[in-house]
Every structure is written in structure tokens, then in C-alpha cells.
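Table S2 (continued). Query chain:
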Amino acid sequence: MVMKIMRRCLLTCWIVWSVLGTHRISVGHEGHRALPSTGVTREGNQLLISDAAIKAIEMQAATIKLGDLQQTLRVKARVELPWSGQAKVTTLTAGKIESVLVKPGQQVAVGQELARVQSLELESLQSELLTTTTEIKALEQLIKQRESLVASGGIAGKVLLESKSNLQRKRAQRDIVSYKLQALGVDSAAVARLLQAGVLLHSIPVLAPVAGTIESIDTRPGQLVESTDHLFDIVALSTLSVVGEVLEADLFQVLPGLPAGMTFAGRPNVKLAGRIEHIRMKMDAARRSWGVVVSVDNRAGLLRPGMSGRMAIEVAAVDRAILCPTAALIETETGSFVLKRESKGKFSRCPVQIGLRSRDMVVIETGLFPGQQVVSRGAHLLASLFDGVSLPKTVADGRTTRQRAQPVVTTQSSATRAWVLAAKAEVELPTSRKALATSLIEGRVAAIAVRPGESVEVGDVLAEVESQRVRNVQLDLLQASETMRWLRGEVERLRPLADAGKTSTREFIARTLELKTHLQAVAGLERRLSLIGLESSLIGRLRTGAWSDDSGARPVSGRIVIRSSISGNVAGIGLKLGQLVHAHDSLFEIQDTSRIWIRALVLANEADRVVVGQQAVATFPSHPSLRVNGKVVRIGPQLVSRERVLPVWMEIPNPHGFLKDGMLARVQINAPKLPAVAIRDAGAK
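Corresponding output:
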């Protein structure tokens, strides 16, 4: 009561000083007696204010209106180059750089020739292909001659069968050499010209895998290079990513698909708009923030990776709502109200229910109508005359800062003594719900089939890795399979002849042993390709000789498919197209966040009360309205030495993926208090 009287006295003195300073005397109004010493009178829930007092406190009124309102979250942002806009270029074979055909900064198209590489392997394969083609033509002529001789009885049919078998073998050898040339980067048209007209190639072209700008060149004419050397870096700036840094406390407001506006410090006249494509699943531990990604069209070249700016995310919006200035709103523990103008100099306390709010405006659900007027400046000063309302820390602009509701730790009463409050807790992903996708062999990234944050199922293709070693093993299997089929035909041809005594038994036995050796070699190559990760269907086509399927695709591609081992979301992509990867490198991380753990740290003096199976409740600073029930599923075997706390894990559902690895939490465990234990002296009975 004393504080209330003192507060009113101070307010009265301040108003009187303001009135005297302006040499004005307050006058009576509305039939009331003049109040020259104050100018303000309270009558119940109403205030009577003189003109002099209104001018002294610089009070202003605003009109309630009907309109649209957007709640905007403003965060820092930066421009990044997406994974799809980067590529590294390598050669498919070792050799010497004959010429470099582009310059740094030059624009290139997909498939454009960047350089030429001279290779001894190229010369050797071309020579082998021409020799094999000549032998095939000679065998075809020989078979025609022997067919006529067999018909006239001049030679035995065995000789003709041997010639046909050799022709089949040579044709298979020609096709395999053609595949090897294409594996080096020679296109099928060049191979056809070589077969038809004998046009030799003196170098292998290095082609651009994507369209973009040459960022750097790491090779020179005359330089010796290996198939693992990076020669060019290409960046595509036509589409860029703007990444906003959303703090943990604000993350619950942000969802994929929300509209966002972007401005940039280096481009003050550029304002872009887009929608949130995805929210990154990994936290920036230093800032405790998550990146929200918006893709923007940059074909005009206005932005560059590395630029900083601001992102305004429209987290909520309402249409045709009753709007009131935020400065007019007075919030107390019992509710919110405004000072509504009833008539000249007469204002009443009007309770309101509020909805969506922004920095300047708030939606009024009930209590006001469009056209009514409320005090927008000086409202908090006048509201302090009512019981239960105190002045804000600053009333210079008539605004107060609204703090986000946070879970409050209260002292446990006798009714809640069974609850154990964890000292610290955070979200953790169970080990069974996190998987890495790796390559089992060295190669370069030929294709990336997913985007960050994309949902995948078990067995979905994530990427393809192209490897010269895989291609060589495929060709070895193809050649071994062709030889095996030829040997099987020879054994079947010689078996009846050997049984009839018309051919040497030694030749039949030699071919049989050779067939068994090749069968073992084929089986070994199949196992090797299967362990590497080659599709079983491709292995079967190589073994049976079905070199192309219905679509014309050939099995000798040298590509290994990287698949997801669990269902979940792609947590991030750190790859570039054409990047060299090594065996057992982690290429992707897949996270299944449908169920999560919360790792809570319980104080040592309460650790004995916690057992597996007890009920627990979790709340989250990042999601103030979220309250999740779960059970204790695991208890650590020992205390954390430094903090003297026991780690305890509870498992909860997370069907919408709102909770992410690393988020802070607050956990209460329903653990009954242990009864007191009497400790007897060692000598007591």
C-alpha cells in the first residue's frame, strides 16, 4: 500500500512539473472539478485526463483498424554455393596433357572439351582393335572357303568347326577392346570410324560434366597426370543457396515451405524472395543455430558465394484481422488490456484477447472493434495508476519487450517430491537410427541422386561412384565369360569325337581342365564385383553375355551404386560431382528421427532413485508448447567424473521431426523417494 501511494505521488509530481514547465494550468472537464495539481483522475476502471496533462506526457492515440499481419523472424544469412553447383574434372587414364583448351573464368557447356590427353594405353588398344578386326576378316574368308571344301569332301568338318569357334572368340575380343576404348573416354562414334576407316585417335578428350565457369586449372600442357589427379574446378552460379542462421529458441517457428525475403549488405538495392527448401539437420555447435536454406535464381549474376545479408522469414500470417499497435498493449499476470478512448479526456481499461503479433502490431481476438481509439503513447505510464500494474523499465517509446515463454523450474512441493529433475539434458539420436553410406573402392563421384534433407527409404540410390578398377574387373569378367563359353562349346564338340575315337583324348582332357579353370576364375571375379557393390543383375549380364538390356544400356560402366542402408533423411552432402573418394570414405549420413533419445544428467545424490522403465516428461526451450511423455530406457554404468552426475536416457516419439540432434531439453523423472536406511554400528546386534 505504501509503495502504491509513493508511486502515485511520484507520477503526480512529474505531471505537475511538466504542466508548470509549459506555463499551462489544467482546467476541469466533463463536469468534474479542475485538477490543477495532477490533471489525471482515476474512477474505477476509467481515467479522466486533462488537455494539459495529455500534452505534458505527450500522449498519443491510435485507431484500431482491419488489415493483414505477418509475423516475421529476422536472422543473419550468408550466400553459399550448393553441392549441385560444383564439379571437379579428372582424366580417365594416365598420360600427358597435349593441350588445354579453356581459360580460368571462361563459361563452358556440358560436354565441352576442356583438354586433350595423350596416352600409351590408347595407342595400344587401337593397335589391338585393328589387328583383331583384320584377323576377323581373314577368318570370315577362310570359313567361306572351308565350307565349300567340306561340302565337296575335301576336308573334315572338324576343321570348319574349329575355324568358326576361333571366329566367335575373335569377335568377342574385338567387342571387349571396343569397351576398353570407351572406358578411356573415346566415344562410340570415334570407335566406329576406327573400325570402318582406320582413323586413329592421338589423344583422349577431357569433357566438362556440368555447365558453369572454370574456377581454376591445375594442369599445364606437357604435364604428366594420373587418373586420380584433379585438372579443373567448375562452379555454376546460376542457382545459389542463401542460408539463414536460426537460433535454437526460434527454430520451432520455422518450417520448410515458409516464404522468406533476403537483403544483402553488398547489394543494398537487391531484394530477393523465396521459400525455405529445407532445414539442416546438423547444429552449429558454436552458435547453437540451425541453417535454413533458400534456393535463389542468380542468372543475373547479382550474388556471389560468401556474401552476407539478412533473411526475414514469414513464420505466420493472418488476413483481415483487427489490428492494434503493440505499444498500446499492457500485459500483466492476470491478462492484457488497453486504454480505450470513450470520449474527450475519458479513457477506460479494456481487457483484450490477443493473437498473432509482430514488432509493431498485434491481432486483437476479442475486446476491440475497428474504428475505436486506444492510447498508443503514454499507455504504460497511465496504466501504472491501476492496481497490479507496474511501470516498465523504460517508457521512452511506450514499448515493452516481450520475452518468449520458457519452462520455469519451480521448487518441488510435497505433492511432487517423487519427481527427479535432471540437471541437464539434450536430444540425442539413437545409434541404430544413424547410418553412414560409404564406398568400398576408390573412384570419382559420377552422379548424386539426392538432396540435403530429402527423405529416403532402405535401398534407395544416393550416388554413383565411377572407378577404373571396377571397369577393369568388369572387362576381365566379360572376357573370362566369353572364353568360358568358347571352352564349353569346344568340350561339347570334342566329347562325342573322343568317345568315338575320332580325336585325341588328350585334347579333350586339356579343354576340360581349361574349362574348369575358367569357371573358377569367373566365380572369383563375380564374388569380387559383388563385394565391391556391383548390382547382381549387371554381374549376371556380364556372365551370360547379354551386353545390353532393352534400353541399350551396357553393363561395362565402371560405376558402383551407393545405397541407403536405413530409412530416414539425408543429414548432409559434402560431395562434389567428379570428386575423388577413397575406399571406406563416409559419403552420406542418414538419420531416422522418428524416435529419439534424450540424454539427461541426474545429480549423484538422486541417481539411486532412477531405474529403467520409470515414466519421464520432457520439455524443450526450442519448442515451449511441446511436452512429451516417455520412459527411461537406459542408465549409464558410472558417473560422469567431472560433474558428478549420472547419464540417463529416455526414448520419445518424434514423428514430425521437430526435435533435432543436439537440442536442449528439460527432463523430470517420476522416481519415488527412497526410505531412510538405518545404519547400525559394527558392534550392534
